Amino acid sequence: QVQLVESGGGLVQAGGSLRLSCAASERTFSSYTMAWFRQAPGKERDLVAKISYSGARTYYADSVKGRSAISRDNAKNTMFLQMNSLKPEDTAVYYCAADSTGRYLPLRPNDYDYWGQGTQVTVSS
Protein backbone atom coordinates (compact mmCIF):
# COMPACT_ATOMS: atom_id res chain seq x y z
CA GLN A 1 0.00 0.00 0.00
CA VAL A 2 1.33 3.37 -1.08
CA GLN A 3 1.07 6.11 1.49
CA LEU A 4 0.74 9.75 0.49
CA VAL A 5 1.08 12.63 2.92
CA GLU A 6 0.20 16.21 2.05
CA SER A 7 1.57 19.28 3.74
CA GLY A 8 1.79 23.01 3.19
CA GLY A 9 -1.82 24.02 3.60
CA GLY A 10 -2.98 26.78 5.88
CA LEU A 11 -4.66 30.16 6.10
CA VAL A 12 -3.60 32.77 3.57
CA GLN A 13 -4.90 36.13 2.43
CA ALA A 14 -6.39 36.56 -1.01
CA GLY A 15 -3.62 37.23 -3.49
CA GLY A 16 -1.12 35.24 -1.48
CA SER A 17 0.68 32.02 -2.31
CA LEU A 18 1.06 28.52 -0.96
CA ARG A 19 3.21 25.58 -1.92
CA LEU A 20 1.66 22.20 -1.22
CA SER A 21 3.76 19.07 -0.98
CA CYS A 22 2.89 15.40 -1.28
CA ALA A 23 5.39 12.84 -0.04
CA ALA A 24 5.06 9.24 -1.19
CA SER A 25 6.34 6.15 0.57
CA GLU A 26 6.68 4.10 -2.59
CA ARG A 27 10.02 3.76 -4.35
CA THR A 28 8.23 3.25 -7.69
CA PHE A 29 6.74 6.74 -7.41
CA SER A 30 8.51 7.68 -10.62
CA SER A 31 6.18 5.42 -12.63
CA TYR A 32 2.96 6.95 -11.28
CA THR A 33 0.75 9.62 -12.73
CA MET A 34 0.14 12.07 -9.90
CA ALA A 35 -2.60 14.60 -9.36
CA TRP A 36 -4.01 17.21 -7.02
CA PHE A 37 -7.72 17.30 -6.27
CA ARG A 38 -9.70 19.63 -4.07
CA GLN A 39 -13.04 19.42 -2.34
CA ALA A 40 -14.99 22.22 -0.71
CA PRO A 41 -17.78 21.50 1.78
CA GLY A 42 -20.87 20.19 0.04
CA LYS A 43 -19.16 20.03 -3.33
CA GLU A 44 -17.68 17.34 -5.51
CA ARG A 45 -14.02 16.47 -5.50
CA ASP A 46 -12.52 18.13 -8.56
CA LEU A 47 -9.24 17.74 -10.37
CA VAL A 48 -6.91 20.70 -9.95
CA ALA A 49 -3.83 19.50 -11.80
CA LYS A 50 -2.07 16.34 -12.85
CA ILE A 51 1.38 15.40 -14.00
CA SER A 52 2.75 12.45 -15.91
CA TYR A 53 5.26 10.05 -14.40
CA SER A 54 8.17 11.84 -16.03
CA GLY A 55 6.82 15.32 -15.46
CA ALA A 56 6.77 15.97 -19.19
CA ARG A 57 3.00 16.40 -19.39
CA THR A 58 0.80 18.50 -17.14
CA TYR A 59 -2.85 19.45 -16.97
CA TYR A 60 -4.58 22.28 -15.12
CA ALA A 61 -8.20 22.97 -14.43
CA ASP A 62 -9.41 26.21 -15.98
CA SER A 63 -10.00 27.65 -12.53
CA VAL A 64 -6.29 27.52 -11.63
CA LYS A 65 -4.63 27.71 -15.02
CA GLY A 66 -2.02 30.43 -15.23
CA ARG A 67 -1.58 30.82 -11.49
CA SER A 68 -0.68 27.30 -10.40
CA ALA A 69 2.19 24.98 -11.19
CA ILE A 70 2.44 21.26 -10.57
CA SER A 71 5.84 19.63 -10.37
CA ARG A 72 7.53 16.51 -9.06
CA ASP A 73 10.89 15.36 -7.82
CA ASN A 74 11.04 11.63 -8.49
CA ALA A 75 14.38 11.24 -6.75
CA LYS A 76 12.67 12.35 -3.54
CA ASN A 77 9.26 10.74 -4.20
CA THR A 78 7.62 14.12 -3.85
CA MET A 79 5.05 16.15 -5.77
CA PHE A 80 4.29 19.85 -5.40
CA LEU A 81 1.58 22.33 -6.21
CA GLN A 82 2.57 25.98 -6.23
CA MET A 83 -0.49 28.21 -6.00
CA ASN A 84 -0.26 31.95 -6.55
CA SER A 85 -2.83 34.74 -6.61
CA LEU A 86 -5.07 32.72 -4.35
CA LYS A 87 -8.77 33.48 -4.24
CA PRO A 88 -11.43 32.71 -1.63
CA GLU A 89 -12.88 30.27 -4.16
CA ASP A 90 -9.71 28.20 -3.77
CA THR A 91 -10.69 27.34 -0.21
CA ALA A 92 -10.95 23.56 0.04
CA VAL A 93 -9.28 20.43 1.28
CA TYR A 94 -6.54 19.54 -1.17
CA TYR A 95 -5.67 15.91 -1.80
CA CYS A 96 -2.82 14.31 -3.65
CA ALA A 97 -3.58 11.16 -5.60
CA ALA A 98 -1.62 8.53 -7.50
CA ASP A 99 -2.42 6.28 -10.43
CA SER A 100 -0.07 3.33 -10.26
CA THR A 101 -0.76 2.32 -13.88
CA GLY A 102 1.20 5.33 -15.07
CA ARG A 103 -1.54 6.36 -17.49
CA TYR A 104 -1.87 10.06 -18.21
CA LEU A 105 -5.58 9.79 -18.98
CA PRO A 106 -7.06 9.81 -15.45
CA LEU A 107 -9.23 12.85 -14.79
CA ARG A 108 -11.75 11.42 -12.35
CA PRO A 109 -11.24 10.58 -8.67
CA ASN A 110 -12.18 6.93 -9.26
CA ASP A 111 -9.28 6.57 -11.68
CA TYR A 112 -6.73 6.99 -8.90
CA ASP A 113 -5.49 4.18 -6.69
CA TYR A 114 -4.00 6.02 -3.74
CA TRP A 115 -4.93 9.13 -1.79
CA GLY A 116 -3.47 11.28 0.90
CA GLN A 117 -5.39 12.46 3.94
CA GLY A 118 -5.78 15.99 2.61
CA THR A 119 -4.55 19.38 3.70
CA GLN A 120 -6.81 22.37 4.34
CA VAL A 121 -6.33 25.54 2.33
CA THR A 122 -8.31 28.55 3.50
CA VAL A 123 -8.14 31.83 1.61
CA SER A 124 -9.52 34.89 3.36
CA SER A 125 -10.77 38.00 1.60
User: Number of helical runs?
Assistant: 0
Count the beta strands: 11
Q: How much β-strand is present in the residues?
A: over 45%
Q: Whole-number average pLDDT?
A: 95
Q: List low-pLDDT spans.
A: none
- Class by alpha and beta content: mainly beta
Helix content: under 10%
SSE map:
Layout: E1 4-7, E2 10-13, E3 18-24, E4 33-39, E5 46-51, E6 58-60, E7 68-73, E8 78-83, E9 92-99, E10 114-115, E11 119-124
Could you characterize what this model shows?
The protein has no helices and eleven strands. The strands form two sheets. Strands 2, 4, 5, 6, 9, 10 and 11 form a seven-stranded mixed beta sheet that branches. Strands 1-3-8-7 form a four-stranded antiparallel beta sheet, with no helix packed on it. The radius of gyration is 13 Å and the shape is globular.
